[in-house]
Please model this.
Amino acid sequence: MVRTRKTVAKTVTLAGGRGGALVILFALVVAFSIATPDFLTGANLVNILRQYAVLMILAVGQTLVIVSRGIDLSVASTAALSGCVMGVSFAHWGWPEPIALLFGLAAGFAVGAFNGFVITKWSVPDFIATLGTLVAVRGIALLVTGGLPVPDYERAVEGRNLPELVSTLGVDSILGIPLIACVALVCVLIGGLILSRTKLGRSAYAIGGNTEAARMSGIKVGRSKMWIYIISGLLAAVGGFMLTGRQASANALMGEDLELQSIAAVVIGGTNLFGGEGKISGTVIGVLIIGVLANGLLILGVAEFWQRVVNGLIIVVVVALDQWRRRAARAASA
Amino acid sequence: MTASSSPPLRVEDAEKVYPGVRALAGVDFEVDPGEVHALLGENGAGKSTLMKVIAGAVTPEAGRIEVDGKEVPLGSPEAARDSGIGIVYQELSLIPSLSVGENVLMGRWPTTRGGLIDWSRLFPEARRHLERVGLDTEPRQVVRALGMAERQQVEIAKALSTDTRVLLLDEPTSALSDREAKRLFQIIEGLKDSGVAIVYVSHRLTEVLEIADRITVLRDGVRVGTLSAEGVTEAQLAQMMIGRETSGSPEEVARRQQRPGGEDEYVLRARSVARLPRLKPTDLELQAGEIVAVFGLVGAGRTRLARTLFGLEPATDGSLELFGEETRIDSPADAVALGLGYVGEDRSAGLVPRMSVANNITLGSLDEITRGPILDFALEQQVAERYVEDLDIRTPSLDHLVETLSGGNQQKVMLARWTCSQAKVLILDDPTRGIDIGAKEEVFRLVRRLADEGIAILYITSEIKEARELADRLLVMSDGRIIKEFEAGTSEEEVMAAAGGVRG
Model:
């Protein structure tokens, strides 16, 4: 009796979360490969990597935040702002390349620090605080760019376009692999290292799993959350650079919807939306599911409007499945 | 009063098992019409579980409940309510932002034919229910504006509004002042006269003797006895609640005698530490290797004292000396850094349930297992394994989720966390609450051993037996302050009398 219950619990656990996501990803790849010969080609797979690298970078930061029972709605806006200030300071103001890049990163840091400050010091709920910055930061980006694409050739300093590093990483490939995907991989590795092997990462799990327990064991909850939002802001800045490089231009409205996609990717990858559980590897799978699905539907000629419908429903279905899995697992182990 | 053959409430053979504890072991319980029947027992005796079983909030493994001779389906709050059982929990369940009237008729608001709430019927109806409990508050008033006593009256009115035959009151005076308690007793008398049977759960002897007609005493999930309140003394009841006198093992007595008495090695010295209004200025001294028990009834401020010392609710006043140096503790992080550890009465508050045993043990000493910026997993496993062995934590593996462990073993994980962090002062707040007898003994042994290793222990408890069994010194709290200090070996009755205070 007890044994069967345990087996049930185990099966149910395997069927959901990260394992379940991997199964879904595999099924999608198989299905699209059968449906169309154009899906499983080197060129198309590289295309997916190129297109979803930015989402991957943002989703890494989002994973850290969600594991610690937060949410960061401002990642896409922050990416846009960082790309814009980097572009404007380099092309329009004629700043040296390293300084312009640092300035872009500083913008990401600042938004993250602001989020962390408002959440921990003023006790504004994570959702509300970052919803505020989601809107306000877009506004700042519009102010910085005057609503025009960057670089704007009338305002640019002579001969200035985008920093060399940004265009190279955004566009070029090495041995057929896009560099932008390599940047995403580096972000994944760093994020994974932070989450699984540092004090900050462990604190994130503890805070997400039981904030009161984390506090009682001497973890500085406020400071940890602050750093997690800053890391999310910095990753968003890197994502903004890559987005700018890929499309050879920055603008204040770029990357819209990426915040929701990043949350979707994290949750699809098996991370508990209410904190305490989750892995970067799951998020990687989650991003790939979103990418493969959108790409496959596009190749099959499904209209983009429908893709939105499918994307939205997938989030709901995956989370519903996950909740069902958790309930079943709990019932089986009780 | 009609002489009916079936009582308003009869519980037969109620049985409830929680992991590791038998909360109710075949309890029979019966209430007569128009009587106040008190359920008395120490914390963990099973009073609240029995209440919840009767109210349908908890499904028992076995048993039978009848109201007026009719069987009530088990484990259904709706069924219990429909058969005439009303309950007022210790934590009130009113919605502060809604009006008194809406709360009284919660979920059963009269509606117009169009489906809208019919306010012209709601408020007068609510007023009728409020009058039964002698509350003349305007039903349109928002609950938030009311004091604790009035809120409780609203809660009682709510429980009575469904044609209630049996009213269950769980520790109803725990948040009331003496005067408010008196007022509550008058209300109870009034209800009794109107034919409602009342079950009154409490562990306060004086109050039970004052209000109850009959008393049932529970201990460790078993009914010790039911007797008429007439002619019973507090001492008799205390004896029934506590059970047989235990005087401690010979080694135990020897250990106490060995302890250096007058040595002035204070590790912690608090001077008029306060967090007003609940914790009044308090002095406290702890010596290395000493177990000091703090005993008090619910609401005496014991937990407040613990939480204040550990920085969970930082002191607003007073000074603190640790290891001979003046310091401040404004957060648990400060406390941990200074060598304090805390195990709360609620294990689930201290553990991260879905983290492994090993991760929970090292949570208070992450710096020690970090090499550069990176956690050293191998070292972590080693450290955790040492404490799992040392404290005899029974877990299938270090990587098992801590939530799968039994209560006693979870509590040992908490102790392991603080031995791992090399804490020199441990604050234990009712650490054996809700764990079974065997595990309790084990926790006691561990606590003694930690003390022998030189750790100062502040042991907060609501069980007098524990306090006497463990402590070198015994402090009694009441009304937010330490009112008396006893040496080890003082009789239970004497301590209980001090803790109960004299109710005016």
